[in-house]
Amino acid sequence: MEPHFSSVLFERAVDELSRLPGVGRKTALRLVLHILRMDMNSVDAMANALVRLRHEVKYCKVCHNISDSDVCGICGDSKRDTSIVCVVENIQDVMAIEATMQYNGLYHVLGGVISPMDGVGPSDLQIQSLVDRVSEGGVKEVILALSSTMEGDTTNFYISRKLKTFTETVKLTVLARGLSVNDELQYTDEATLGRSIVNRVPFA
Q1: What pTM did the predictor assign?
Q2: Burial of 120 (0-12, 13-18, 19+ CB in 10 A)
Q3: pLDDT on residue 2
Q4: What are 114-132's pLDDT values in tens digits?
């Protein structure tokens, strides 16, 4: 039986926070109690940040990373090497690779991997936009930095086939297998991930 709270507003806040992934009702309860102890300015700042996040954050029209403008800070950075594009599954992978400080190229966020079991096909991902991006010229290397899972390998193979017509001018590489099978990039330690990027190998 669910506990009954003396405040409807309190209960509603617990309900909303418990909808977040990984946050159960006990954790949500602790968070709401903590928020009640915060000063009003801090609570207002937190609430405003969340509302602005949802209403104003966009997806970069070039690489599909999160951004405050039409083009993200990475794509708009003149110091980045625009001839290299690192293909990743999600935004967390961009953050993981950036944390290594071993990569200075651009990114392309697919938004997932091909997974027929989950109903995710190539048309559900940003694969065609990658092909269009490469076809525009200027890209000399595409790094396939997807997780070493069956779905990741399937997506790598599919992308390699789609980019086959560009292989004379565009080098296709993958991360060095310092990563264990089934490893996800976002959970790999920075040193290992950094070495995998630096020591990347041609896609076979």
Answers
A1: 0.83
A2: middle
A3: 59
A4: 999 899 999 999 999 999 9
Q: Using one digit for the tens of pLDDT, what is the confidence trace for 1-46?
A: 556 667 899 999 999 999 999 999 999 999 999 999 999 999 999 9
What is the three-class DSSP state of 22? coil
CATH number, domain containing residue 176: 3.40.1360.10
Q: Is the same domain home to 85 and 145?
A: yes
In whole angstroms, give the CA distance from residue 196 to residue 177.
7
| Amino acid, single-letter form, for residue 154 | T
For 175, what's the count of Cα atoms within 13 Å in the CB-facing half-sphere?
A: 30
Q: What range does the domain containing 16 cover?
A: 8-56
The CATH number given to whatever domain includes residue 52 is: 1.10.8.420
153 CB neighbour count, 10 Å cutoff: 17
Give CA–CA dist 196/98, Å, rounded. 13
Q: Tell me, what's the pLDDT at 182?
A: 47
Q: Which residue do the tokens 């915060």 mark?
A: 38
Q: What are residue 107's DSSP bridge partners?
A: 86
Interhelix angle for 150-162 vs 128-135, to 10°? 40
**Residue 2 falls inside a structural domain:** no
Cα torsion angle, 201, 160, 107, 99, sign: negative
**Which residues have CB under 8 Å from 15's CB, separation 6+?**
28
Q: How many domains does the chain have?
A: 2
Predicted confidence at residue 202, as pLDDT, reads 87
The Cα–Cα gap between 166 and 171 comes to 8
